[in-house]
Every structure is written in structure tokens, then in C-alpha cells.
Amino acid sequence: MKVTLFVTCLVDLFHTNVGKATVELLERLGCEIEFPEAQTCCGQPAYNSGYVKEAKEAMKHMIRTFEHAEYIVTPSGSCATMFKEYPHIFKGDPEWEPRAKALADKTYELTQFIVDVLKIENVGAKLKGRATYHTSCHMTRLLGVKDAPMKLLKNVDGLEFVPLPNSHNCCGFGGTFSVKMGPISEQMVDEKIHHIEEVNADYLIGADCGCLMNIGGRIERQGKPIKVMHIAEVLNSR
Amino acid sequence: MPMKIGTGEFKERVDKGIHNSFMRGAVAGAQERLRTRRLEAAEELGNWEEWRALGEEIRKHTLENLDYYLWQLSENVAKRGGHVFFAQTAEEANEYIRDVVVKKNAKKIVKSKSMVTEEINLNPVLEAAGCEVIETDLGEYILQIDDHDPPSHIVAPALHKNKEQIRDVFKAKLNYKKTENPEELALHARHTLRQAYLTADVGITGCNFAIAESGSITLVTNEGNADLVTALPKTQITVMGMERIVPTFEEMEVLVSLLTRSAVGQKLTSYITVLTGPRDQGDVDGPEEFHLVIVDNGRSNILGTEFQSVLQCIRCAACVNVCPVYRHIGGHSYGSIYSGPIGAVLSPLLGGYDDYKELPYASTLCAACTEACPVKIPLHELLHKHRQVIVEREGKAPISEKLAMKAFGLGAASSALYKLGSKLAPSAMNPFTVNNRISNGPGPLKAWTEIREFPAPGKERFRDWFHNRQKGDHQS
Amino acid sequence: MTTGTIHHRDKFLQTIAKKLGRNQRTTGVTRPHWKHQPQWSVFKGFSQDDLIEAFKSQCSRIHTDVVETTADQLAAALKQVVAGYGGGPVVTWDDPRFVEYGLSPLLQEEWPSEKIDVHVWNAAIGQKNIEFAEKANVGITFSDITLAESGTVVLFSSSGKGRTVSFLPQTYVAIVPKSTFVPRMTQAAVFIHERIEKGEPIPSCINFITGPSNSADIEMNLVVGVHGPIKATYIIVKDR
């Protein structure tokens, strides 16, 4: 199966290991990976800040870059959600609305793709330790992907899974919110870390690099012994 | 009090909220409890999404035909002998109510909980006319006797106060001699307020839902205070935001079912009271005279705009009870009697961006509010629309941000620029990088690194790795 | 009845119409057939007995006692409940059902002979009724419609059926005939709506009462009995 990878800007620049793990994992599951080099960013930073005009330029570029694909897969619930929002954003635009819709229809978040399209729930991964999972807001509420990561994590050999208390609460990332509303964001992420510690997890796993950068960056600042991993890295552990 | 509450800049208010550990504990506890109860109530129905869809459809239809239903309502109120006053502004509403009160020569007024009378700042007007005004909702009463402390939650107004504080206020203001036990406090309030109901000249209420087909108003409480406010004084004045209306009893029933479940997880609250006109001939209790004041006060400016759906709100506070931002900063930080997500959407619309420009940004757009709303207001989308308006129409965004976003637009829309920029990033960040981490970043990174580490951009981007790997594949 | 007045309506409604981008509407709007109507699926197909069971289980969640009895045992049951609440004074509606259900001897002879004051609402004496109600220990009414889902009694006011009988006394007792049970508020709303459609007047006050008065305004602690009754009992009459 041919998969076109939308790796996201955060992974491209800062979390390359997540991208590598995604490629290796999907290849192992029988996919052929294509990476369009023209890809940039889904436009979310500008869009969420209210700069819709600027964001639309980025979006059009992404539509052009990805519209040839059969399946678009991305290791980010939030960026997948953004692609899914495109038709709504271009609503009423005779040229771009249909193109946006076609793009949205073939976009999948990584775990959603593995479970719903590849129909695989056990990827043969192994990781020893106690782990909890952060349900990122856009992925669960807007994209509606709730079960796929759980199904996959349940089948990771050696991994003891513990639910995260108050998992429904946002970690405090929110893109520019994390810097515009720093003091509030700090309280939110501290509460999140408090709950992670409460369940004595060795690993915090997530499916969005934005949230993980926030939680992980704070954990690191505080020097806490919790390892933060993207789900692609977990599923690629052997 | 008016809609705008508190003093100081948004940042100062937030700082105060964050450092109020009692309030934060109370809010977190209340959120857990109310959220759980709401989810259980929805679960018990089993088809909650259908209920939400119905609630949304009713609210949308009503707003689309608001002039018709208000016309029908006013006709039916008048037919039953009630008086209707349409008030375009807060001043018009206050003036009319004051005139009624003065004409009745009223000295004592009892009130049941009403956000709209807070919004129009009614109480000081009545007090200036020489009346004693007594709030009878227990939470509102506590705030009132504590020198008009503002409400911090639209359903549980005194959520930010602990029982020791309440005991001290009762001691100072009511000659209370007992302990901080809530039952003792409530009993004391019961005795004091009972006398107020029995001796008041005028009762003032808000309105959860007016019913157009019959000219009725619906009041929803657990305490029963609205019933005594409307049963005992000779004159009743009900104040409603113009959007708080439904076509018939059948829709009222659906929205009440959504309201009580969403607000407190109850199937119905203890008292749902539907009042039509003044008392019937031969009745002993109930008012002799009934006035309905329908308030616009900026609401019509929301109609026909991209924000119209905010008027679907039934004031259940489900969005407040799930908001992770409200959770940490509390209601007073919003600087408005309307707090939480609904407050962050509504306050700038009713009060303007000058006072409330920060509120749309006090959200991670996590959509917990949208998910919780029983009438499907897309709250997080409306917060986003505010941001768009602030940037595009109001021009209130900071210049540095504008430039950055302009650059983003150019960079992300051009693969060449993006590639170049991302290639240069590691060397640009080099001076700030220690062990692949940035702990004290420049520019916009500063705010990030005040709280957290930032990963240094890798020397090899993912695209470089992929490119090299493909090349390797081809060579082998 | 004198018709009331309406002030400042035209400009107000015209503004709304203008903002909605059309001319003002005073006729020609019909309610749509709502696409979803989940309210009808609650307790669908339940018998009266099923509804009573659901009602009883709900009452355990709303701090309300339930007593089941039959018409011929009602007086005894009511007497026991009132005794349990510490006796009189008692205030009741002036409602023909008190006679129909054989409660006259209790109200007129038994209780007075036991020095329990009984006041039956009497519109002719006006304000005095409220003074009685305010001093009463127990207020007693019938339920006009009873909602199984929420444990609610619906009371229609009239000159004999004072509003404050259910609010002012320390405790409240509702007599609930089996025949008054419906699944939920939906059926009560339809009943009232149909009366309006037929042009019949509706009572000036319709109360949906669900257990005693309560508040959670102090630290979210539930306090039962704030402004209204502190305790409540429903007496179900199973054969009427």
C-alpha cells in the first residue's frame, strides 16, 4: 500500500526520531512510503492565532503538495485535524473547497490508519515498563480518534498500561497559548505532570508532538524521571 | 453590579486567581463533581446526542424567528393582564423597573437569581431609589452581604468562597453566632430570608425560558426561592434577555431537561415553576401585578453575524465546568460576570474588545466546551472567530505577531523558503543550545523557556534523513 | 380580566428583523417537525405499575420518602406520615379530591380532636391563608400529574389550590393517585400545550416539584431544606 507521509513541521525540525519511527513502522507493516519534499506546515499556528489569510496560503500549498496521494498519513492528531478542517475553512470557494475535501477524505492520523485501514492491532512491538497515555484534545474531540491508540498500546509486549487520571483535561499547550498565556499554561502542564506521577508511570506516551513538547519540556525542566515518547516510537520498539 | 467586574489588567487578575489556592481547590472539586454528574445523567438517557441535536434545532429555529416569538409572547402576556416593556438598553430597562417600583411605593424588594439583572446593574438603581434589595438565592445572598463580591460562576456564584469565609461574613453582617457548618449557615439564611419574602413589596426574577404560546415564564431552582419571590409580594417584575424564549411548552420541556442535566446532573431541579400573568381572579397568592422586561442590551448586534449561535446559550455552565483554563484561574479573572468559555465568547460581544480582548486567547481551543454544550454552540470555533476579528477587523494584534505571521504565511506557502529557513535554524539557535536543549530562548521562545525546555532543531532534519535513506536504497 | 400594556415593541422587533436581514414577522411562522424527538423514547411502553417502580427508585435519589397505600387506607397512611413529621399545624388545598378520597373525617374530626390544627385553603379569607401556611408544620396537596422519570409532582394552582401550601410549611406531603402517572415532563407539556391550542386558559402557576428544597451553594455541600420544605413525602394511592 502506498502511503504519502505528512511528517509535520515539528517532527521535521525537532523530533526527527518520531518521523524515522513512523517510516520504519509503516514499512514493516507493508507500506511503501512517499515523502513529498515540498511539504511545509498545515497552517495551524497562523490559523489558530486568527491569521486566516496567511494560513490559507500555507493550506493551499499543502493541498497542491498532497492531492496526488492515495493515503495521507501523519503522526499527529492535531495536524490531521487541521487537514480535516480545510473544507470548512475554504467553504464556498469553488476551486479550493472540493480540493480541500478530497484532501481531507484521505487523511489519517497514524494510529487511525493502522487500526482502521491496515486493520492491524498488534504491530509486534516490545517495550518494558509502566506507561500512561495522554489523550490529546484535537485528536480525541475533533478528529474523534479515541480507541485506536489504546488498542495498539494494549498489544505492546511488556508494557503495563495505566490510565491517566483527569485525562480529559488539556495539557496547556494550545500552540501560541503556551507562550501568550504562559502562567496559565504552566499551571495546566503542572497538573498534568502531577497526574502522570500519581500513577507512577515510567513512560508518558502521546500522539501529538505539540503536547509532548510541552509536557516533556516541563518534565525536563523539573528534572523528573519520566520518559516522554511518541506512540510511533513505542510501536517501533522491538 | 455591572457586567464588568474587578479591577486591574487581565494578567494581574489571572495572577491573583492562580495564587488563590482555596478557590482553585474548590473549582477543581466542583468541576470533577459536576462533570461526572452531567456525564452520568447523559449516559442514563442513552441517546444524549439526539437530545443535543433537538436542543440545537429548537434554539436555532427560535433565534431565526425571534421577532415573531417575542411578538407572540408579548401579546399573550398582555392578554393575561401582564405588562411588557421592551428595553433596548440597560438604562431603559432600569428606568422602567425603577418607575414601577417607585409607583408602588415599594421599600423592600426580594430577588431570585438573575444574571441579566447583574448585567444591567439593576440593584444600585433600586437602592438609589430608596429600596432595600435582597438577593434570595443562597449563593447570591452570601455575595451580596459580603459587600457585593462578584459572582465567579454562572450557576454556583459563590463557588470561590469557603465556609469559614461565609461564617465570618454572617458573623459580621447578620449577628450570626454559630459554626461554619453549611446546614447551620443555611438555616440562618432561611430564617432571615423568610421574613424578607413575607414583608417585601416587589419580587424580581430572571427568566430561564419564556413560552411564546402562552405568555408564560419558567423559573428553574433547587432552593425554591423563586417561588416565594413570586408568590408573596404584590408586584412581580421579571427581567429576561431577549433570546431566552421558546415557542411552546413542548420546547420548554426539552430545554429544561437539557439545562438541569447539563448544569447539575439532575433530571429536574427541585422546583420548575411556570407562571402566566399575574394571579388569577380569586387566587390568594401570586402577584396582583406582573411586568415582563425584555432586554436587548447589545444582543441584537450579535444576530445575523457569525456569532449568532452564542445566543443559543441556556446558561447551564457545562462549558465552565469542563474548561481547563477556568479551572486554574477562576471566574473573577475573566473580568466579567460571564466567565468560562461562554463568558470569553459573550463578554467581548456585549462589552466590546477594549475590555475583553484577552479573553478569546485564554483558551487552548481544546474544544472541551464545544463537546459539553447541550445546545451545540461551537464555543471553541467562536473563540477562534474572535481572534480572527481582532486580527483582521479590529487591528488589535501586536505588530511583532503580525510580522511573524506574515513571515509564517510566506514561509509555509513556499517550500523553497521553508527549506531554507529550516536548514538555517540549527545554526541560528546554536548560541542558545546546550546539550541539544534550549533553556533560555530568544524572542518568542523566551516565554516558552521561562517554563520549559525547548528542543534544539536537529542538525539533520527528518527530510534530510529520508532523502539520504532513499539515496542509500537506490545505491544498494 | 384587564388587558396589560406593551411598550416600545415596534422598534425593538424591527431592529431584530433588520439584523436577521428580513422584514418583521408577526404571522406565518410554524414550528418545524423536529428531526430528533428522543423525549418520547423514555419509558416507552411502560405500564402504570412500571412507572410507579421507576418513580420510587428515583425518589430514593431526591431525598423524598414514598409511602404506598390504597384509597381505603389513605387516611391512616396520611395520619402516620404527619405524625412522623411531628404533627400539625396542617394546611391543605381546598380540593374535592380530599372528599373523594375519604379524607374528610381525618381533616374535620380526627385531627382537630387530637389538637392538630387543620387549615383548608379558603380564598374568601385572603391573606390569612398565607399566615396559616407560614406557621404550618405540614402542607398537603394532591398531585395533578406525576412524572415517573424525575420523581416530580405537578401542581396546577387555582383559587382553592394556593401556591404556598407546597412552599411555606416545614414539610410537604403530596398525595399521588396512580392514574396521574406519566413517563416524564414531555407528557405533561403536551397536555398543557393542547389546552392552550384549544383556547383554554392555563393556571397562573404550574409547579413541577421534585423533592424538598435544597442548595449546594456553600462549598458544594448539599443542604436539604433552604427556603421551602425541609422534608417531603409522596403517598402513592395504588388503586385510584
Automatic annotation (TrEMBL), chain A:
Residues 3-84, 132-215 form the Cysteine-rich domain. It comes from the Bacteria. It holds the Pfam family CCG. One of its GO terms (molecular function) is oxidoreductase activity. GO terms for cellular component: cytosol. Is involved in L-lactate degradation and allows cells to grow with lactate as the sole carbon source. Belongs to the LutA/YkgE family. PANTHER family: LACTATE UTILIZATION PROTEIN A, UNCHARACTERIZED PROTEIN YKGE. This is Lactate utilization protein A. It comes from Paranoxybacillus vitaminiphilus. The gene is lutA.
TrEMBL record, chain B:
Residues 310-377 form the 4Fe-4S ferredoxin-type domain. The keyword Transport applies. SUPFAM superfamilies: alpha-helical ferredoxin (SSF46548), NagB/RpiA/CoA transferase-like (SSF100950). It comes from the Bacteria. GO terms for molecular function: 4 iron, 4 sulfur cluster binding; metal ion binding. Residues 72-295 form the LUD domain. [4Fe-4S] cluster 1 binds at residues 313, 316, 319, 373. Keywords: 4Fe-4S, Electron transport, Iron, Iron-sulfur, Metal-binding, Repeat, Transport. Belongs to the LutB/YkgF family. Is involved in L-lactate degradation and allows cells to grow with lactate as the sole carbon source. Has probably a role as an electron transporter during oxidation of L-lactate. This is Lactate utilization protein B. It comes from Paranoxybacillus vitaminiphilus.
TrEMBL record, chain C:
SUPFAM superfamilies: NagB/RpiA/CoA transferase-like. Belongs to the LutC/YkgG family. PANTHER family: LACTATE UTILIZATION PROTEIN C. InterPro entries: FTHF_cligase-like_sf, LUD_dom, LutC, NagB/RpiA_transferase-like. It comes from the Bacteria. Residues 52-237 form the LUD domain. HAMAP family: LutC. Is involved in L-lactate degradation and allows cells to grow with lactate as the sole carbon source. One of its GO terms (biological process) is lactate metabolic process. This is Lactate utilization protein C.
